[in-house]
Amino acid sequence: MNFTSSLVQVWKNYKANNITASVDPALKGKLTVEEASHTLQAGLLCTQSNVTLRPSMSEVVQMLTKKDYAIPSPKQQPFLNFGGLSQSDRTVSSNGLASARSSFHSTTSSLIPNEI
């Protein structure tokens, strides 16, 4: 199973209220159900289609280290599934694979200070 299909399976398990079914069998018994659930849910938040719904790294650290941190529910399926992109944001390459147009520079340009 590749990364994309694994991520989609985690999303499906999350939507079915069975996210811990996504835990690698080699890890079972080595972490609590709550730890596994929080880790997988934080991962889904980090892969939200809409970048504004993704947590900051400091929020992710808090999610993974503070037991009482209230982890928000993911609102969209993972980005790798292209579920949150409109048709105009999708392109098809010459080999027939779908991909998203990069908006990295326009998204991050406001985050980079003008002074260097």
Can you walk me through this structure?
The chain is mostly helical. The chain has one domain (3-84). It has helices at 3-15, 33-46, 57-65, 104-108, and strands at residues 90-92, 98-100. A hairpin with a 5-residue loop joins β1 and β2. It is globular.
The whole-number mean of residue pLDDT values reads 74
Report how far apart the termini are. Answer: 44 Å
Structural class: mainly alpha
Q: How many beta-strand elements?
A: 2
Strand order of the largest sheet: 1-2
Radius of gyration: 17 Å
The share of residues in helices is 25-40%
Could you describe the largest sheet, including whether it forms a barrel? 2 strands, antiparallel
Q: Percent of residues in beta strands?
A: 5-15%
Given as residue ranges, the uncertain stretches (5+ residues, pLDDT < 50) are 81-116
How many separate structural domains?
Answer: 1
H and E string: HHHEEH
Task: Give a brief description.
The chain has 116 residues and is mainly α. It contains 4 helices and 2 strands, in the order H-H-H-E-E-H.
